[in-house]
Amino acid sequence: MRREQVYIANVVKCRPPGNRAPAPDETEACTPYLVEQIKAIRPRVIVTLGLPAAKFMLNSNLSMTRLRGQWHDWRGVRLMPTFHPAYILRNYTVETRKAVWSDLQKVMQELGLKPTK
Question: Which of 97, 100, 94 is nearest to 69 (CA)?
């Protein structure tokens, strides 16, 4: 997909110190803005990158391993959780790359796109 076909948003609107995962109060303060962004964009599909985004969007405490690779629903929009790019770089294994590629192939199929190699 071209960049102009993709909208990127974050659960929090500022980077937490030390690039750590957002604290619950930080997420709570910022997510109303995210919800309004999503309402305005009206996406066909949402892909969450990493556990904080998946936890917020799905109101879930399941692990990323349990959430990723399966379609979920967020207010009538299909949602696919997958690993965060930083996690992929820290765990750059064939298995991790295959998992993310599998998730993204499902997204492409949902959007009627043909995956490239």
Answer: 100
Q: How many domains does the chain have?
A: 1
pLDDT tens track of the chain, all 117 residues?
888 889 999 888 888 888 888 888 898 898 899 999 999 999 999 999 999 899 999 999 999 999 999 999 999 999 999 999 999 999 999 999 999 999 999 999 999 998 776
The two beta strands, 72-74 and 45-49, are unpaired
The answer to the question of residue 80 being in a domain is yes
Residue numbers of the domain that contains 31:
3-110
Identity of residue 41: I
Domain presence at residue 81: yes
Q: What is the CA radius of gyration of the chain?
A: 14
- Nearest-CA neighbor of 6 among 57, 52, 43? 43
CATH number reported for the structural domain that contains residue 72 in this entry: 3.40.470.10
Does residue 117 lie within any of the structural domains?
no
Cβ contact 83:96 at 8 Å = yes
Three-state DSSP state, 20: coil
